[in-house]
Design goal:
Blueprint (H helix, E strand, L loop, with lengths): L3 E9 L4 H11 L3 E5 L8 H13 L17 E4 L6 E7 L5 E9 L4 E3 L7 E3 L1 H17 L4 E5 L10 H5 L9 E5 L9 E6 L2 E5 L7
Antiparallel strand pairs: 1-5, 1-8, 2-3, 3-4, 4-5, 6-7, 8-9, 9-11, 10-11
Helix pairs in contact: 1-2, 1-3
């Protein structure tokens, strides 16, 4: 199994959040491919209903519970990415829900075969993910968008923690709401809808 790069989207729970999120992805140039793993033959509407029903019941998979009972994952197509997979993580009694979009790290960074083992960045693909994040921010109400490499050891922050001064996870980018005393040594750009795109090039490589 390859290592994955993650884009984490934090949204407020509501009755249509699953459909709203998937439809916003499709409006941002992703196309539905299939369900994933045990659910390859499920269509999009079946997955939406299953996941929304689970979320409405505040479901979290038990330690001894079969994975078939969990939220269903979806595969999308997006330009030349080898895999784009989306899954849901819920925390009981939280007002928020996390949607995770993952792609293989090899689609973004490769190691050049030479004595120095240099990293080669796929800037075009990273820019496509930034475009996706900006589009999502402006197509649906999102509290925070953060990114990380699989080997990262620092946690993704909640939007509430960010507003209270915690540093958002930007490996290498994030989109968060404008807030007072924003102190982040990285490139910042207004992306509309009260959002700031932060690009931290120091965190480009995993």
């Amino acid at each position: 199994m390859p290592a994955y790069f993650t884009i984490a989207f934090e949204l407020i729970k509501r009755e249509t959040v699953v459909a709203d999120f998937y439809n916003a992805l499709i409006s941002s140039n992703l196309t539905f491919k299939s369900g994933y793993w045990y659910d390859e033959n499920c269509d999009k509407n079946d997955i939406i209903k299953w996941n929304q029903d689970k979320l409405n019941s505040d479901f979290v998979l038990g330690m001894k519970e079969h994975v078939k009972n969990d939220y269903k994952q979806i595969l999308f197509n997006y330009y030349n990415f080898n895999e784009v997979r989306v899954f849901i993580l819920n925390k009981k009694k939280s007002k928020m829900v996390m949607f995770y979009l993952i792609v293989p790290e090899d689609d973004l960074v490769s190691i050049q075969s030479n004595k120095n083992s240099e990293f080669v960045q796929n800037i075009d693909n990273m820019n496509l993910l930034i475009e996706l994040a900006v589009s999502m921010w402006n197509n649906i109400k999102i509290e925070a968008i953060q990114t990380e490499w699989e080997s990262s050891i620092t946690p993704i922050q909640t939007s509430n923690n960010i507003l209270n001064g915690k540093t958002p996870k930007a490996e290498p980018f994030c989109i968060v709401k404008k807030y007072k005393n924003m102190n982040y040594e990285a490139q910042k750009k207004d992306v509309g809808n009260n959002g700031i795109l932060i690009i931290n090039e120091k965190c480009w490589n995993f």
